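assembly run, all chains below
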Amino acid sequence: MVFTKDLVKGWWTRYLALVDIAEENNRLRDELKKAERLITLTLEERTELARLQKLLQMDALHEVNGSGARVIAMRFGPQAVLNTITINKGLADGAIAGTPVIAPGGVVGRIHRAAPHAATVLLLNDPGFRLGVLSQETRTPGIVRGVAGNPDLLEVTYVAQNAKIVEGELLITAGLDGGFPKGIPVGVVTAVQPGHETLFLQVHAKPVVSFDHLEEVVVLHPGDGLPPLVAPANPTNALGATNATATAPMAGTFNATSTKPGTANAVVANGTGQDSRMERPRRENQNATTGSARTPRRTQSPPAPQGRVTP
Amino acid sequence: MNIWLFIWWCLYVLCAMVLQQQVPGLDALAPGFLLALQQGKPWQTAWLFLVFCIIQEGAGSLMFGTAMLWYGGTILLFHLSAKLFVADNLLFVMMLSASMGLYHIFLTWLMCSVQDIAISYMELVEQGIQHSVTIPLIWGLAYLLRPAAMRHVN
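ok done. output:
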């Protein structure tokens, strides 16, 4: 009886009563056309962007080298007072203190301390973490830090009272600290309130990355155009000293002239929480002694700008 | 140290690691250390001190030396308390774990202040209470499951 009922019902909904299906089909066709138009427009804008960048001799925005790493341990033991994870890349892989770490969704943190083949990453939601950010729509600058006792909350400090930042806006890295490239998603604004006793707005955000479910991350090594990271004497203080008004050269501001066609992968965060890969030229002779592009590249003196420095 | 005792300690450390992985901030090795102190074998205590310090220092994010101060302080508290009370009962361990909870708060606050690390004091107090509550529980379980070689030696 039940079988017969299901059979009849299936015949009716799948083969006879198709009014809703036809409407849905039309709607999907319209959405497909809109998406195709959007893709065409985006491709046109991308080619225009490439032409303008070439015209102005600007490097592409997110060109950095990244290497994947696995999370091998989370916060552990009574002496683990910081919000950290441990990854399987260390000094031998070029991961020194201060090296930025991201995930497919956005910013994860910075390397706090490194052993030869493992490193501890200070997470974005730690109260001691600081990162200069911009809001994606209104371009409001601020500094993100973790909130003690609430790992799912970030606080955006030094946001001016007259800033137009709104709830739901995406926060992206400002690219001013010499580590994180500009435009990587950091969090989503959840609350904007006037400050009671300060000259700044009280802004809270939620991280885009779920730190409880991290399995793989990407350790960002500075590209040819990025200034090299210098291992600070005290990593904690160095991490806490980062701010949006840092005077370090912006990411990708040096012109690299001694390049040759190569196929080094570059991690590209497209501002929507998704990463993609792109081809970019590899710097010739990054390490004349070992032929490796690892630690020595990070510790040598900054590459001298060729010609001029473009903003 | 006989082989069964060695295997028991290995299993204890393994279980403690799993427990610490599940509960951030918990020291599941400390109850075992208390058990070793109660047993009163200096060499065994010394080996465990070394192993536990290496584990906790490696896993922690504070500067080297914090775990030594933690377990060193535990030894001091144990011997001071043992001069006043009988060391081999649950009430003693409960009193000792309460003082260890306070010591954990003080030590972590001190090391974070020295290293200029921002921490949540509410979380720190919660961790101290957590230590005070969990140490007697884990100690009681380990006390019941301890091998014959560790019984009646205090």
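The first helix of chain A runs from residue 2 to 16.

The interface with chain B takes residues 73-82, 84, 112, 120, 126-128, 148-149, 234, 236-237, 240 of chain A (CB under 8 Å).

not gonna interpret more than that til we talk
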